[in-house]
Amino acid sequence: MANAAVEPEIVYDKEGNAHEVVDFNNDYEGAKLGFWIFLLTEIMIFSSLFLVYGFYFDQNSSDFVQASEHMNRLLGGINTFVLLVSTLTMGLSVISLKNNDVKKSTKYIWITIVLAAIFLIIKYNEWMIEIGEGFYPSSPYLDSLGNGVKLFFGLYFTLTGLHGVHIIVGIGVMLWILSKIKKGEISSSNFVVLENTALYWDFVHIVWIIVFPIFYLIY
Amino acid sequence: MSNTNEITQKFSSSTYIKVFFILTILTGLTILQPLMIHMNYAPTLKIQMLIAFTKITLVVMYYMHIKGASSIYKRMIFAAMLLVTVLAAFTMGDTYIRLLMHNDFFSN
Questions:
Q1: Shortest Cα–Cα distance, B105 to chain A (Å)
Q2: Same structural domain for residues B92 and B65?
Q3: Domains plus CATH for chain A?
Q4: B62 and B19 inside one domain
Q5: Which of A74, A141, A204, B71 could make a disulfide contact with A134, Cβ separation 3.0–4.6 Å?
Q6: In a domain, B5, yes or no
Q7: What is the pLDDT of residues B71-95, one digit of tens each?
Q8: Are both B33 and B51 inside the same structural domain?
Q9: Do B5 and A33 touch (CB under 8 A)?
Q10: Is B29 on the interface with A (CB under 8 A)?
């Protein structure tokens, strides 16, 4: 850790210009790059699941189409729109903070949290409807149906469950950011944490952009 | 080197709102397409995936700021996509070989 009495550390760029190393813990590009690497690991996780879906869809197309008819398209469509609006409000919160409008930024983050909670409530109700109809792993009704239908619902609960976990994590991170903004630790001159959270939220939206048509709209 | 975050943002809130409206129209198309144009599931899925990838491109370019970002981010995304494509190619190859073996087994 640097201390005031110590000689400042100097680094040189490609042109030979000297720059003082001010703070190792506040590297904007490093923070962004590190977060993108994390996002790429997330891309690999979800891509693998989409590949599994593609493989079994190829093997059991008619069963998948039959299973998709049981999905609640209205609730799925509402959730798609909720997530779309939440991505906008998250982006607007970053822009507001950059413009030093902390109050507006905080307001947009709260709207995003509320929208994320609405998404989860709708998803919970949807799952309850499906479970009530007997579409849950190892249910006697599901076991009486074709293997493709079982695979479809297994993948549906896995993918939407994993996506839901990401939404819950996102809500937790946004609440943590709100406390950091309140303490002044995230501000118009130090916003990379909020910007990375917005990137995470965009990723959560992207996953849903694929999940929605492959489960709800194959008919 | 600055100890504050550099303003690399080149997109204003108006860009965000414009992209939001395009995404809303595309979401409407996603929902309405199977209802209005009755096709087999295979072409429906192709159209759905085309709309989805258009939406993803818009989100990545404008909301995740890859348009105008340093080339290292573009290269990283390209590398991830390449890896996913290789995995998909292996999966498809494996599926095809299994199908050939299955057909050979039942024809003999």
A1: 18
A2: no
A3: 39-216 (1.20.120.80)
A4: yes
A5: A141
A6: no
A7: 888 888 888 889 889 988 998 898 8
A8: yes
A9: no
A10: no
Tell me which residue in B27, B49, B91 faces A81 most closely, judged by beta carbons.
Answer: B27
- Model ipTM value: 0.85
Q: Given CB atoms, is A212 within the 8 Å cutoff of chain B?
A: yes
Domain that holds residue B88: 70-108
From B30, B72, B91, residue closest to A213, measured CB to CB? B30
Q: Does the distance separating the beta carbons of A22 and B3 come in below 8 Å?
A: yes
Judgement on whether residues B51 and B100 belong to the same structural domain of the protein = no
Residues of chain A contacting residue B42, judged by C-beta atoms under 8 Å apart: 61
Report the number of distinct structural domains present in chain B. Answer: 2
Give residue for tokens 């998709």.
Answer: A68
**What confidence tens digit (pLDDT) does each residue in A123-178 have?**
999 999 999 999 988 889 988 888 899 999 999 999 999 999 999 999 999 999 99
This model's pTM is above 0.90:
no
Contact (CB<8Å) B63/A213? no
